[in-house]
Structures
1.
Amino acid sequence: MASETKVAIKNLYKIFGKNPTGMINHVMNGMSKKELLEKFNSVLALNDVNIDIPAKGIQVIMGLSGSGKSTLIRHVNRLIEPTSGELIVAGQNVLKMDKKELREFRRHTASMVFQKFALLPHHTILENVSYGLTIQNISKDEAAERSQQWIDKVGLKGYEKHFPSQLSGGMQQRVGLARALATDAEILLMDEAFSALDPLIRTEMQDVLLSLQKELHKTILFITHDLDEALRIGDNIAILRDGLVVQKGTPQEIVINPADKYVTDFIKDINRGRVLLVSSIMDSSKLTKGVEIEKNMIIEDALQIISKSGASKAIVTEDGKPIGSVELGRMIEAIARPNNNTEETANYH
Amino acid sequence: MSWYENIPTMDRQELRDFKKYVDISFKDFSRTYGDGIETFFDPLLYFLVWFEKLLINAPWPLIILVIAVLAWVGSRSIFVVSGTVCSFIVIGYFGMWEDTMSTLAIISISTLLCISVGIPIGIFMSRSDRLQSMVNPVLDVMQTIPSFVYLIPVVMLLGIGKVPGLIAVCIYALPPIVRLTNLGIRLVDNEILEASESFGASYSQKLFGVQIPLALPNIFAGVNQTIMMALAMVVIASMIGVKGLGVPVLRAVSNQYLALGMLNGLAIVALAIIFDRISQSFGKRLQKHLESEHGV
């Protein structure tokens, strides 16, 4: 990818247990998670994780519970120490930092949003949002002024003097988001940030995040167990299973070309029409006449345009120029739920 | 088979020597260091005497006014304040004013002492599991050992008087504040601590900004318990020369004065209830932010 790498995770291993460094050789020699647990009573949480996260994009780490995703994100700001591996964040080697450097790093470079919000219950919303700033010993007035901007931005104007317990879950997470943004850190770590919210509020918060991202261009590391969420907000997705990265790619790549049965099972139930782009199913060898569809449109929207026009074909365009065509039947085929057959899924290519 | 019928015991002579040895070495110890230790506690004694005189010599309406204001600050309840004022007037009416003031003085000072010693110990305990496992048995001993037993070495060391009484009260009243401070800090939500850490909070920023404030309700329960235990100790402390409501109670017990015993006993109860209500409602007010007012 063209843009610079903001967070580089290299050969990261994490083993929980009595003698993690002693276990690392077993793991490198190919011992499985199950075997390690049975023989040595140690838990292999992360197994040779390599992810390069480009700047200014949203990198989603996805996996079911126990896959190690929350452990992984806590390595980025070193809330958890790795057993082995390297971690370069914004050009700095995080693992070589001493305590003071690490504090500075956490204050200015990477801030975090938590699954259960983790707000300070005894502080007001304004005090919560300015928490990161007060820790930096910024004067109260300046902290309040800077925090107020973010409170307005996440839509909580008027709630400054309330306590967290007086707010609904969605609003509490807006506070969490504002608190993380208020430090102006360039990297945002979001640990299942929207998972505790009910579906409607979750979608709403995703919109809030996406619209903020359009303006702020942060590097966001977003952890989730929800594939729909991952596909919706991720520029890149890495799927984690038992501490192992099973697939990395854009949402398109993952849906069109799942790496193995695990991923195939994962994407089985998603709304493909809302993920796949016209460009990924168009036929660039033929040009037809008809309505024009932009190549970066999702199929769901394209279907609407075609069915309104009454035609069965459409021209795919890029910057207004025709580059291919697509048929109605092909589109319907693409969004149909695939069988459990990897072969057939791969045929979409 | 004699070992089967009788539990093996130390030889009588040996046992006597052993006890003698312990007694004599402690006597030597107190002879050598007793004066030093007494001088060490002198400032405390002066302060205690000064505070007691202050309470006794001040005009009674002023004392009641001050207590009423404290009750109001603590509880914000007219009910508690008027109850407090009535109790003190009744106590005075039955001629127990001076003893009550003495008791008030020793309770206040021993509570302050317990708080200033107990909270730091509790904080250190919460930071280390090893320290916790070492301190916990000590606290168990302090709470369960019959108080008369530790009165002996205290009296041997410091003689009879206010300071040994104060120390006896503190030994008895210290454990709850230590335990509940430790517990309160350990119960603080881990994710909130993690959040504080993720924003780069230093050790002291975490302790004073997050852990202690969130542990306050528990710490306050500890303060409340400490006050109650200190009051319970008042009668026993009067045996080693502490003035106050315990003295007439002791006299009543040895002379079978029912009315005297009842009156002074009830005065202690009244003090206990007043302290309890005030400190509890103060503790509750500290948690006001936890009251949910959804959708306001």
Note: Confidence is low (pLDDT under 50) at residues 292-296 of chain B.
2.
Amino acid sequence: MNFSKMKIGLKIVLGVLLVELISLASGITMGKNITSHLVVMGCLSTVLISQYIAWVVSDNITKSVKNVLESLSETSVNLTSLSSDLTVTGSKLAAGTTEQAASIQETSSTLEESESMVHQTTQNTKEADSLAKTAKEFANKGNLEMQTMLESMEELKKSSSEISKIIKVIDEIAFQTNILSLNAAVEAARAGDAGKGFAVVAEEVRNLAQRSAQAAKDTSVIIEGNINLSEKCLIVTGQVNDSLVSIKDGTNKVSELLEEISTASQEQEIGIGQINKAISQMEHVVHGNASTAQESALSAEQLTVHTETIGEIMTSLSSLIYGEGKGVASVSSKSSLGFKRFEISKKQSNPISDKPARRQPKLTEKPAKMIASYDAKPSSMGTPEDIIPLGDF
Amino acid sequence: MDLNKAAVIEPRYLDLFCEYLYKNMGIYIEPSKKSLLAQKLTKLMNDGGILNSGEYYHFIVSPPISEKQKELKNKFTDTVTVHKTNFFRENNHFEFMQRNIAKIIEESPTIRFTNELRVWSSACSTGEEAYTLSMLLKEILPPGIRAKILATDISPDSIRKAMAGVYKFGPEDNITNYYINKYFTKVGDTWVISDEIKNNVSFRLFNLMEPFPFKNPFDIIFCRNVMIYFDKEVQEKLVNNFYNSLSKNSLLFIGHSESLIQIKHQFTYHEPTIYKKVSK
């Protein structure tokens, strides 16, 4: 209902009524027929009375509508403010989850690398374990062979002593032969000319005996050297044996340790594998969260738009009721205050509060880290796709 | 999220993907790791809006004919490969270079004549290793000798990031403030590598399974934490290729969990994870 138009109508009616009243007054004084004036005045009075009744009824309605409109307007302002807050929170959440998704992806990459490294270490440890086992076998074999060698050395020492005894016998025989040859020479001299030939033989026998004695002495020295050597050999062989036993013990320990390491790194591998799986599941969830957050941020933004529309509807409704320029002020000023607050909160809000330099990310954009690298001017080499030729390399 | 419409990878196609990865990238998927691959593939399919595993498989294995397919393939490569890297990761290799740089130059048959130390970071990921080498060599090379670093990776996304040279430093980065202040510029909350370091590095997309196309041999090759994803056969082939791409007395650096002990090769063991090409 347009009250302003009604008021204009009312003014016209009042104007006409005034003119009729003046005419009636002048008619009475001049003694003219006043019936037509009375009829017009009667009609006009009826209109006036009915207008008055209408005005009283509509004023009551307007008051109630005004109250409802004011409450609605207030609610709309609150709603605008809340939905803009929701938009900001949604953006923050979206940015946060996107960042989280990026870091989870990085963690996942690191874990996968670690898993492969541990796997390689496991393989290497297994290889080392098998090498240690082979070394242990060789040490065992060496140890056994050393035992045989020790026995042989012992035998050698014994036989050297035997040889030494025999040499002594030879020496004695040479000594006695020498004496016998001397006796033979004396007997040959007694025999005179007939013994001359025998004397020559006796001399030869003496020479032989002396040579035998010399050879026996030389041999005895050599044998003594041999005995010394085989004694030394025995000591060294004993030491080698001890070393081999130590090697055997060492390789035993190495083998045990490697087996432990192998088992542990296998466990580690399994553990990392499980973490890896968990992380990639988390990655999946976080990616889901990121898109959900983005969706809700978008919904919140839409909500803001809708609330703004409600505000606008309020304004037009109020201008319809109060007329242009009246009553609008209460709604629009409030709503503009609401938007103002939204602007401020938008400026103040920062998705990553500890990084003030960072701008508010749009909902559809990629994580800042990726953007940073993409945005940066690539070097003169062109895009990766067109640089397959290796040029001056 | 509508869970009813989520993609599921069929076991038959999972096996086919394993085979494809082995043949084309040398990546051997252990039976225990198949479920992890399945998860990755499922996510890739969901992200790409493909619900049928056969359709996805054909998208990946056939040569790309559309931008969408190219993007799908790039995402696939990026997801199935691991990009873990840091500045000065496994630092004793860089310390070794610092200690032995004079010897490396002296023993090389070419560096003194070409005045170039040729280094190849063969699986550079997002470029941290290559830039670490570039910074280190800037510090330790005698005047007159410059570093020429080739950095390659199989993942286009990683190469793109490496070429941008924009980083964020986390607690796992072993980089000292000295290097950060000298060779990086802060832009927002990221750090951008300087041009003098960037200019010594050439980034290229390269699959280590392809034949090596190099004109000249390298003095140093870095191939760290790559062979852990390969089986013995592929490792042997790769190490042999590296041997043939190195000059005399040059070095091969491998990851700290790796060893060449189980494979046949011609390198001479120098230190744990450091091998030398002695003959030729």
Note: Chain A touches chain B through 47 residues (CB under 8 Å).
